[in-house]
Design a protein that fits this description.
By secondary structure, the chain is α/β, with parallel strands linked by helices. The chain contains 12 helices and 32 strands. The strands form 4 sheets. Strands 11, 12, 14, 15, 17, 18, 20, 21, 23, 25, 27, 28 and 30 form a 13-stranded parallel beta sheet that branches. An 11-stranded parallel beta sheet has the order 9-10-13-16-19-22-24-26-29-31-32. A 5-stranded parallel beta sheet has the order 3-1-4-5-6, sandwiched between helices. Strand 9, helix 10 and strand 10 form a beta-alpha-beta unit. The radius of gyration is 29 Å and the shape is elongated.
Amino acid sequence: MKSKIVTALVALLLLSAFKTDTNDTITVFMIGDSTMANKPLGGDNPERGWGQMLPGFFTEHIRVDNHAQNGRSSKSFINEKRWDAVLSKIRKGDYVFIQFGHNDEKEGEKRHTDPGTTFDENLRKFVNETRSKGGIPVLFNSIVRRNFGENKNAVAEDDLHGKGTTEIKEGDKLIDTHGAYLDSPRNVAKELDVPFIDMNKITHDLVEGLGPEKSKDIYLWIAPKTLAACPDGRKDNTHLSVYGGRTITKLTVEAIAEAVPELGKYVRYYDYVVAKDGSGDFFTVQEAINAVPDFRKDIRTTILVRPGVYREKLVVPECKINISLIGQTGAVISYDGYASKLNALGSPMSTSGSASCYIYAPDFYAENITFENTAGRVGQAVACFVSGDRAFFKNCRFLGNQDTLYTYDKDSRQYYEDCYIEGTVDFIFGWSTAVFNRCTIHSLGNGYLTAPSTDKGKEYGYVFYDCKMTAADEATSVYLSRPWRPYAQAVFIRCDLGKHIAPAGWNNWGKKENESTVTYAEYQCKGEGANPKSRASFGKQLKDISRYDMAKVLGGTDGWNPAKDGNQLLSVKR
């Protein structure tokens, strides 16, 4: 029980390294109508509000709290006490994004306001009361309706959600439906010195530029029998699709960054966003990988993975080169395969077939991602199988037991910086040349940290720089390495070795002849597990490590040096 508690505490401490200090978090509250609101995700619902997509454009220093609601005007939002609920939460330094108009235009006492009088008064109320709490208001006007012709029913059709849309003759120019309701936010912003985002112009230029046909992709124009959520199809000129929500949010965030520079420093742009809460382009990481153009050269495709456990068997094929996979706190890729588990055709998965994630493409970069195999102690169960050349992992976690991290390809070079890797037996293993820099290597039980299978004639195998070897209580005798193949190489430089490291340090895998072919060495290691006088005779204590300069280990013929250059692309042709 004690070891489980310690292991849990270690995991919590490591997870905290990925977390943003909540005291530094700024909340962006959003109040508005359906074009901004969060939408339900059930039944493959294709609708999104632009505010729903906003979290995918900011760092974790920004928390988005979206209170926008379908069908609300500035008047009904106040009368239903929705504004009071938001006001009670605002802290000094928080922001309130205010966007009304679509429903203020509607007839009916519950929602209707007039521009220049009651609409403006409500906007002033939002602004002044936000400021009274130390918050910062930002005013937005309404996005355009996709109205390429004369349609006297355009405003009323918002509430029909594509049912009964008036058939009109469409031209090439958008016809405005908002009138003076667009001016009220602009006028109040000028009067009260509030940042103003002209979303009507942003969306007008986008939609008119796309034209009558392509602009349908921005809105909910869906063919019949395409989605279960709308089996009869939909022709909706007001509400946004996933693509429309993401596209409009990106353009809006660009305007926000210019109008509100303090928020601008937290803005990040990604080619794709994966999110379980509907704030991204996709719900699964594999969908995002599949969407990356094949052999997209000389530029990275960036994918943000928002918080959540993504239970999927992920494959990054060779054609999906130059991918950067960036995780937010709690982004986990998880599966439970293991070698003896039967696959779909009834045969054992095998070690190679058990992985939760396969990376075959070159120049793959991952940051703040957890790669996890949850099969438990059932034998070989790989969390991450890495085959592509020039693979770079930063602040990532690799969780499993036996055979957690498989460095597979003989010609693959891999770099792990500030990562956490845990397991029991041979939990870092394979043929590749791999550097581990400032990583934590955590043993969950007795066994072997590494099992390299370095090919004969290879210059390097595994090199650990300034790493920390830790362990659960039940791990009392752990070897630094044993050779999966006779020419295995593993070198530990300035590492902090816990007391769980066996005095002998090295194991010959029951084959005396391996002792004459392996390259096992240490340099200036410290800690209770550093016992040079007790080490097995076939291990070396180095006096000079110039041969193990990181640039030499990873440089190959193209000079790859991720420790110095980060994840930038090589200039050489491939």
